[in-house]
Amino acid sequence: MGASQAAFVAVAGFAAALLARRALAGRTADLTALATLRAPLNRVAFAARSRLGWTRGAPRLENEQKYELFDYLEGDDRRSAEATEADLRARYALELLAARSTRRAYRENLYVLSTLDRFAAPPERGARVTAIDVGSKDFVYAAAIAAFARGGDEGRTLDVTGVEIDGHVVYRDLYSRADYARAYAAQAGSGVHVRIADFLEFSTAEPAALITMFFPFVTRFALLQWGLPARDYQPAALLAHAASLLAPGGQLVIASHTHEERDALAALMADVSGLQRTASSAQDSKLVDYWQDVPERWISVYVRT
Ligand SMILES: C[S@@+](CC[C@H](N)C(=O)[O-])C[C@H]1O[C@@H](n2cnc3c(N)ncnc32)[C@H](O)[C@@H]1O
Predict the structure, then answer these.
(1) Looking at residue 201, what DSSP letter applies?
(2) Range with the lowest mean pLDDT among 121-125, 162-166, 176-180?
(3) Does residue 215 have its Cβ closer than 6 Å to ligand 1?
(4) Among 37, 39, 73, 142, which is 20 to 30 Å from 277 by CA?
(5) Greater confidence, 9 or 305?
(6) Mutate to test the pocket of ligand 1, among 42, 165, 176, 298 (most ligand atoms within 8 A of CB)
(7) What burial class does residue 247 get, using C-beta atoms within 10 Å of its C-beta: 0-12 exposed, 13-18 middle, 19+ buried?
(8) What pLDDT does 284 receive?
(9) Domains in the chain, please, with CATH?
């Protein structure tokens, strides 16, 4: 298909999706079918931003004071969040991050770190730890993954990589997702990197002790809504690839938004060999201020046998 035909198909698909959404407003619609109308636009837009590879360089990461960090909570909820923050800050040496982050970024890191701290086993003692975060978006939580991989041992060498297929999205301040991801990775310390690549084409020098996937797409609808091309909907292949990169005893930690996603994940994982599920649990973290917008969160942990 030529560029002008592709552009026409994309615009037509987008218009059809808009019209269908309007026509179906207020009714129970087949949202997957609706999202499918976006597929041509996703394909063209993804190809265009990937080819452009826009970058504005390194953004300056702002700092905000952390006074009353959980001011959206009250009573026991607030006291509990404050106690969790103090505990994680002390055990994982988060002072530097606390002093150099926005409130949102700091809370995101607390959420990710508390998830790992609660549901995953600390990486085994060793001089070097390899960890991968799949689909890391802007990698705002790079410091949390690094802190967990470090396990309080500042002498440990890290090889932590955030892998993101769609790094060239441009934000309103004209920095790209990859610009931010690289800045957050640099802030997280030495040995923390970003790769803008399809995870299916990524591998590490050494098997990984930890692979995290925070909210991977296990439904076609979610992937299309996010703006990725339909051909990138390959959850079974992604999970099998993650399993193949794990060291014996290595952990795959996966967060899901809904119980439907959790069940879809469990069905996919049933076909992945060599892994044993060690946890599947609801998570009701209030460490992020949008906790009420996400009524459910589930964490599943698998260990390579
Ligand atoms: C729902 S988002 C979650 C982002 C991030 N983990 C978070 O919790 O904020 C899923 C991410 O996975 C990325 N992704 C999807 N397929 C991928 C692939 N094959 N390789 C690398 N990244 C992928 C998407 O571009 C998106 O940024």
Answers:
(1) G
(2) 121-125
(3) yes
(4) 142
(5) 305
(6) 165
(7) middle
(8) 87
(9) 54-304 (3.40.50.150)
